[in-house]
Amino acid sequence: MNRYLVQRAGFALLALAALVVVVPILLVIGTIVVRGMRAINWEFLTAMPRDGMKAGGILPAIVGTLLLSVGTALVAIPVGVGGAIYLSEYARDTWLTRAIRLAIINLAGIPSVVYGLFGLGLFVLFLHFGTSIVAGSLTLAIMTLPIIISTAEEALRSVPVEFRTVSASLGGTRWQGIRNIVLPQALPGIITGVILGLLRAAGETAPILFTVAAFYLPRLPRSPLDQTMALPYHLYVISTQVPGMPAQVQYGTALVLLALVLSMNVVATVIRSTFRRRRQW
């Protein structure tokens, strides 16, 4: 009887903890949706900003966020997954590889403003990219690499050793076994890490503040070396730097950013589920 009561009490505490976490999130999302829907219309999504960003639309910010996300993915995914493959499949367990793994874990906890200052010094000033999409994408890619490498390496290590043994026994090289067997089986976990990194990059303000984001730029970028507006920084600006900004514009911008992030998450979840159903273990 006492065990039964303890179990019920434990379940009740877990349910209460879940409510404490979930209810505030739902309240925040509900407030953004209710108040942001008043601003959502075709002009808001497709027009250029005007009147000091108090009127018009947020098209440059939407396009800029998408360009930065694509640029980050083009750099971070090959480098991150390649690094994870090397650490998981090729590197020996030495003090150097252990130090590299420790450094990757520590890099994941560095504040984003530090990455922004690093990108400013390296890409904007030293490499002379200027405040541009290239500089912003490279900075965001470096920021997301620790997440992608860590999760991709764990996904690769979770694939049973027997898969590699069978591939080698059939005469396949190590790379053939990785490419044709290990990578497809580890793909759901790799996609999880990639989307976590890209979602963080899409919502960051500090790194793009130093490397790419423009305060007010009512046009679309013409080249990768142009500045651009971005939704996170645009939301920060209209919420703190522009007096008299209508609240519905602020909530509308937040809703668009939230919808963009959630849509990326949904697409990644569908892709991950598709590959997970094909997994053979």
- Kindly report the average pLDDT value: 87
CATH homologous group name = MetI-like
CATH topology assignment: MetI-like fold
For the largest beta sheet, what order do the strands appear in spatially?
1-2
What would the principal axes of the Cα set say about the shape? Answer: globular
Biggest sheet: strands, sense, closure?
A: 2 strands, antiparallel
| Separate helix tally | 11
Query: CATH top level?
Result: Mainly Alpha
Q: What structural category characterises the helix and strand content? A: mainly alpha
What helical percentage do the residues reach? over 70%
Count of domain modules: 1
CATH architecture identity = Orthogonal Bundle
Q: What's the N-to-C terminus distance?
A: 40 Å
Strand share of the residues?
Answer: under 5%
Radius of gyration: 23 Å
Instruction: State the total count of DSSP E strands.
Output: 2
Q: Which H/E pattern describes the elements?
A: HHEEHHHHHHHHH
Q: Poorly predicted ranges (pLDDT <50, ≥5 residues)? A: none
